[in-house]
Write the structure tokens for this entry.
Amino acid sequence: MEADQPIDVYVTPRCGICSFDLLEGDRVVIGVAYNALVLDNLYSGLPGDMGCHAECLAREPCTPPPARFFSTAYNYWPRPDEVRRRERWLRTCRVAPMLHRILRRRFAVPAEVCEVIAEHCSLREWAAAVASEFWERHSATPVPEHHEFNISSSVWARRVEFEGELRYGNWVYTLIYRAGETPDRIYFDISLLGIHEIILGAPLPRVRVDLPLPQALPQLPSPRSACPSHYYYDENYYFTSATLDGVAEITPCRSDLGVIGLLLHYHDGRQAALGQVRLDKLQRPPLKVDPSRSMWLHFSVSSENCPNIEAIEFVSPTVVGPQHFPVAWRGTLEWWFSYRQCRLWHGMFSSPPTAPGKVLDYDD
């Protein structure tokens, strides 16, 4: 073979000893089992011979057999998180402890500083040393044809990964939970980066508490009157009610439509709202209430045939018509309202309904 003749060689993309990438410009050795050939240029991308760094091969005590390389080489493309985890383990469990042992002979260097220094160190020689130790420790052991694992219960999983030899560092272990005699539950939040949160606990014992429904579950007001008919497609009615017993004063709430609500003041200091009550629309001063005199509400009909309260008086009108609605100071007053109109019920009597007319539709 002439010295200047180019040779195209295809090798695996990772070193067979340290398992790091073979990069452009690295001195790569291939064909160790039969003929060593040192290359300065690298061509990867197709399946080929197992290659390794020349520096990694120089650490081997003798020419290794082909099985040596395949014992520590990847047979698949590792995920990025697997590569980062392996590099983190090498820095934490190999490089940083060695730096700490060397530097503490002359300086009082914390272990944390050594971990920072290890971030800037090459990991190839450390990975090659770990691979050599693994091969020397397990090469004499016969390799079984298959592996068996005893599983205590049924396992449902999409993918199972066996890490192989576990390498534990000098970690700090803390007992955070001790299982009891009752069945326990474990909740965990997991992603590709690991387990972020774990919650452990047993189901709480059931406690029977008899609570009276009226005191334990307050009920919403249940109207005795029926909801007014919907004459407009975009009209929704709202319901309010209040007792009239013990009312001392009332404060009307007035808008462009007329009186849209009442704020009731009771003798015992309580207050209640009927209809729409807006603080910026309250009429001052409040009106005194005489329990012996009924309250007369005068209704008027708008151009859209919608009834609203026009005035409040405590004197009966000379001529009583359908637009007048008397309210005695006892019982419950129910007030239905929308943004167009209102309708009141007191006992068996009600205020004027929506006047008959054209019902608006979506096309109006």
Remarks:
- The two ends are 97 Å apart (CA to CA).
- The helical segments are 54-58, 66-72, 80-103, 111-118, 124-138, 213-216.
- The chain is about 15% helix and 25% strand.
- The longest helix spans residues 80-103.
